[in-house]
Design a protein that fits this description.
Blueprint (H helix, E strand, L loop, with lengths): L3 H10 L5 H8 L4 H24 L8 H10 L8 H24 L9 H20 L7 H9 L6 H24 L18 E2 L2 E2 L9 H10 L8
Antiparallel strand pairs: 1-2
């Protein structure tokens, strides 16, 4: 008969069997949805457990989309720890700064005011532009920016709680993906291409190195060298 310790080690060793979910995902099986749902449930439960234990706010709405992306698209740049951490940090700081300015001007209140609406709009716009400029591509960070701009992150205690919760989530994601045989970076994705915002006949994002005559024409159009109808 096995001892309690031997039984415990045997059960822990079964974690390696999470690899079958990875194989199931490659074959298009619904078992991967169980993998995603189960790990998301565990992650939020762990955050809630520590929040109750420490009386520290650790559960934030904007972390739900981050968790989903990390388990659903682990190889994508939008799910990488670098973009998640820097994105939420950026969004939180911009939102907090806008809220402080609005409050200092006396335009904030217990209920949403027009000043707060303006601050929230500017916050999301600034956050999106900076994320785009520096390739910190993590859409859920815009949710953190909005929360901060509306006064829901009104102090360093809550802000540090958000960052601590994010680190806990990313560590769990890394551990579970490693056990399941799924590649997930410690910091950034292997390839983080710039988003392509070019459209036919009108260029929003100019490529540095045109690959063919069509792309060269778009560059020339954007610089006014060629007529769009030519």
């Amino acid at each position: 008969m096995r001892s309690l310790w031997e039984s415990f080690l045997w059960e822990v060793s079964k974690l390696e069997r999470l690899r079958f979910w990875y194989l199931a995902r490659k074959k298009g099986s619904g078992l991967f949805y169980l993998y995603l749902g189960l790990n998301s449930t565990i992650a939020i439960f762990i955050l809630g457990f520590f929040a109750k234990l420490t009386s520290w706010p650790l559960i934030f709405p904007s972390l739900g989309p981050t968790l989903f992306l990390a388990f659903y698209a682990p190889q994508k740049a939008v799910a990488a720890p670098k973009n998640a951490l820097l994105g939420h940090l950026l969004g939180g700081l911009v939102g907090w700064g806008c809220f402080e300015i609005i409050s200092h001007l006396g335009l904030a209140g217990e209920e949403i005011t027009y000043g707060m609406v303006l601050g929230a709009a500017l916050t999301v716009g600034i956050t999106a532009s900076v994320m785009m400029a520096y390739k910190i591509l993590h859409p859920p960070a815009a949710s953190t920016a909005l929360l901060a701009a509306l006064g829901y992150l009104n102090g360093p205690f809550q802000f540090l709680g958000l960052l601590a919760a994010l680190v806990l989530i990313l560590l769990q994601v890394k551990i579970m993906h490693t056990l399941a045989g799924i590649s997930y970076p410690w910091w950034k994705a292997a390839e983080e291409p710039a988003p392509d915002l070019s459209a036919k006949g009108f260029t929003l994002f100019v490529r540095d190195n045109p690959q063919d005559l069509a792309e060269l024409k778009e560059v020339l159009i954007s610089k006014g060298k060629v007529n769009q109808n030519d």
